Amino acid sequence: MEKVRSTQLKFKGDKIKKKRKRENHDEGSASKRVEDEDPETWVLPENAAEIRGPTFIIHPSDPSPISVNFDSTRNKIVLSSLDKDSTSDTDTPSLLDRIPTEVAQVWVTTHVAGSATINLRTGTGEGKFLSCDKHGIVSAFREARGPEEEWTPVILPDGMVAFMNVYENYLSVDEVAGGSLQLRGDSEEVGFRERFWLKIQSKYKKEAHEEKKKREAGSELTVIDETSTNHMHQAWGAGRSVVSQEDKKELKRARKEGRLAEALLDRRAKLKSDRFC
């Protein structure tokens, strides 16, 4: 029976039981960094396949970066300043060092089977999906998922992420009357407003690496099987086979006997032809 993974979210200050680090002499490898990191550490994804599990979405707005939150009391998306509780510049961490401090800041990402798209579900309340309709209105009130709840994450060269919806438009931060901010989903190009930083937990990044290794191992086995089959059934074809000395002698003799048989047949045919001339 498969062990059920805990869905409890942990935040800064929580005591975490650390796993033993696996020895690996490849100091520069990405897989070693993933192995060595605490499984609950918040890290940046390097590719779209790694975006899974609890996800922290940040926008580098000015003058204060914001996080995409869900207010379960009001049942709405809220863009909240990450510096609202800071008392001075000295206790303000850099943007990429930010981590979620409350469940409202966390979304749970799942991949749509057989597709490059993902679903983003709220980590608090009853679990509502981030959605965008054809008018670009973004909401999170649906408990079921359909095409309007699917997003395609696009990893940009600088590591930031853009989200494309089913209408091939992008999620963006928009300023409305009064200076307040809201999410929209009708941008046709990716600019500053459409670029987000994402953070995921290290254990989910490790999970993605392990899945990739299994896929690559499966592909390698398939290639080996195909090669073996070709060597078995196509030894006389264009492919070269490595055979023993005895096999080489047998092949040489077979070729020689074949040439002799062909010569005898040609000779008999010529004699028969001369007889009737």
From TrEMBL:
- Which PANTHER family does this one have? FRG1 PROTEIN, FSHD REGION GENE 1
- Which organism was this protein described from? Suillus plorans
Record's Gene Ontology CC terms?
catalytic step 2 spliceosome; nucleolus
- List, alphabetically, the SUPFAM superfamilies matched: Actin-crosslinking proteins (SSF50405)
Family assignment from sequence similarity: Belongs to the FRG1 family.
Basic and acidic residues bias locations: 23-35
Q: Which UniProt keywords apply?
A: Nucleus
Report the protein name in the record. FRG1-like family-domain-containing protein
The protein's location, in the record's own words, is:
Nucleus, Nucleolus
Write the lineage as a comma-separated list.
Eukaryota, Fungi, Dikarya, Basidiomycota, Agaricomycotina
InterPro entries named among the record's database cross-references: Actin-crosslinking, FRG1
